[in-house]
Design goal:
Layout (H helix, E strand, L loop, with lengths): L1 E6 L2 H11 L6 E6 L10 E3 L14 H8 L2 E6 L2 H5 L2 H7 L4 E2 L3 H8 L1 H10 L7 E4 L2 H11 L3 E5 L8 E4 L2 H12 L11 E5 L3 E12 L1 H5 L4 E4 L4 E2 L2 E3 L3 E4 L4 E4 L6 H21 L4 E12 L2 E8 L7 H4 L7 H10 L13 E8 L12 E4 L1 H7 L2 E4 L2 E3 L7 E3 L3 E9 L2 H13 L1 E2 L4 E2 L11 E2 L2
Parallel strand pairs: 1-2, 1-4, 2-3, 4-5
Antiparallel strand pairs: 6-9, 7-8, 7-9, 10-11, 10-16, 10-26, 12-15, 13-14, 15-18, 16-17, 18-23, 18-25, 19-22, 19-24, 20-23, 21-22
């Protein structure tokens, strides 16, 4: 079977790598892919701009999938999901792992997402939605701080402000609604209560359709809990980023905590997906705050998290492609997920200056003997192939790559991951040196 994977980040590299391990797979087509997917076994990168067989007005992803005889599609990023790419694949008889457009709005609209949570009793922070600036400003003044301001639409990770003071919150409202900081995404704001605690990520496989619901097949199956380290600097300091590294599983998350997550967040979400009659066959990301009152949902993402994917998928001791098939055909409830005992640590190397301005086009070199000795797997996020036919890569983004390593103990995984990091060199490369260590996770307190 040939499979098309849409996207070009670290998440998509990891997905391609995991799909290609399956005996069910002949070829993985990454569109457009990156410098890492270009060198994976069974994997081919295709740039839609270089395909002369795509007709005017034709969806390029569908055209490529047809041309390559793909029998499955996997969509990595949120933007194409929100735009309805999954619907287009299904219309063309290409089964797609990724929710259709209606379900994808759970990430594309913070307002819709909060309404969904409230309607179906998902544990979350109290919130109000505003479409005009003045009422939003008055609400902030009355409510006080700390408080959280969220742009309603997709904003590439720049639409959430955790304001410690009323002044910060008022400025955030101005920036998002009036100053065009995130464009149209800020025309509507969700303002919600500030939660204290420590954050975790729970990724899950979802197989829900109206038909599966009637047949008793609709289900969500969570993966092992993981943690993303969002702050740029050691000790959870500095600006927020798209993620400086992840670890899986988490010693500070108990079975009791996961049972409460299942009761208060997972099952109500499943109920909502069924009652809304969504066709949601794909993945969901639960951003969760562990508070003194129990787990509270911060947000849904309608795809796998990045960089959590780079630490979660390597621990899967089962066929990822077979799981995707089970998602699509309604047999996920009976699919047996076995996990490697042990830990995965995946620190991220970024370009100097990130998350602000940074240089592109820097040559990346790898000390291959050292990298091999570390047993770390490099997952590329922001890098492209260099000279044709060579193994060279050039940086093309802020988050450049992750070095993900396994160990039977956390200490072993951590040491291997950072040994792998030491084998990677490029100009102004930067990384946190404390991913997964005590004090590295941001603990949100008043």
């Amino acid at each position: 079977m040939n499979i098309i994977v849409v996207g070009n980040g670290g998440r998509e590299h990891t997905i391609c790598w995991k799909l290609a391990q399956s005996s069910l797979v002949d070829k993985v087509i990454a569109v457009p892919g990156n410098g890492g997917t270009a060198y994976e076994t069974k994997c081919v990168n295709i740039n839609p701009k270089e395909c002369d067989y795509i007709n005017d007005g034709e969806n390029p992803y569908v055209a490529i999938a047809k041309h390559e005889n793909c029998r499955m599609a996997v969509i990595g990023p949120e933007d194409p999901l929100a735009a309805g790419l999954a619907d287009e694949f299904w219309k063309n008889d290409i089964p797609c792992v990724g929710p259709k457009k209606a379900g994808a709005q759970l990430e594309a609209s913070k307002d819709l997402s909060k309404k969904f949570m409230k309607e179906y009793g998902v544990a979350c922070a109290a919130s109000e939605t505003f479409v005009k600036k003045e009422p939003a400003l008055e609400y902030v003044k009355k409510h006080g701080a700390p408080i959280v301001i969220k742009a309603d639409g997709l904003a590439a990770g720049k639409g959430v402000v955790v304001a410690a003071t009323v002044e910060e919150a008022l400025a955030a409202v101005e920036d998002l609604m009036d100053n065009g900081k995130v464009g149209d995404a800020g025309k509507k704001l969700v303002i919600e209560d500030y939660l204290e605690g420590v954050e975790i990520s729970v990724l899950a496989a979802v197989s829900v359709t109206p038909e599966y619901a009637v047949q008793g097949k609709a289900t969500i199956v969570p993966f092992l809990p993981a943690r993303d380290h969002k702050r740029l600097l050691d000790g959870a300091k500095g600006p927020n980023t798209g993620g400086m590294g992840s670890i899986c599983p988490l010693d500070d998350v108990t079975d009791e905590t996961m049972a409460q997550f299942d009761k208060d967040i997972l099952q109500p979400t499943l109920t909502g997906l069924i009652k809304e009659r969504f066709d949601y066959r794909g993945f969901i990301f639960f951003g969760v705050m562990l508070t003194k009152q129990g787990p509270k949902l911060l947000e849904y993402n309608v795809r796998l998290g990045d960089p959590e994917t780079q630490s979660v998928l390597p621990l899967m001791n089962f066929d990822f492609t077979a799981m995707c098939t089970a998602i699509l055909n309604g047999t996920l409830k009976d699919f047996n997920m076995e996990w490697k005992p042990g830990y995965q640590v995946a620190p991220v190397v970024v370009s100097g200056g990130y998350p602000a301005e940074y240089k592109k086009g820097c040559e990346i070199t790898f000390n291959e003997p050292l990298l091999k000795a570390s047993t770390a797997k490099v997952f590329v996020a922001g890098a492209v192939s260099g000279r044709r036919g060579s193994g060279d890569m050039l940086t093309s983004g802020g988050r450049v790559l992750a070095c993900s390593a396994y160990g039977s103990t956390f200490k072993e995984a951590w040491e291997k991951a950072y040994q792998g990091i030491s084998a990677v060199k490029f100009e102004d490369a930067f990384y946190r040196k404390d991913i997964g260590l005590p004090g590295a996770a941001e603990s949100v307190k008043l």
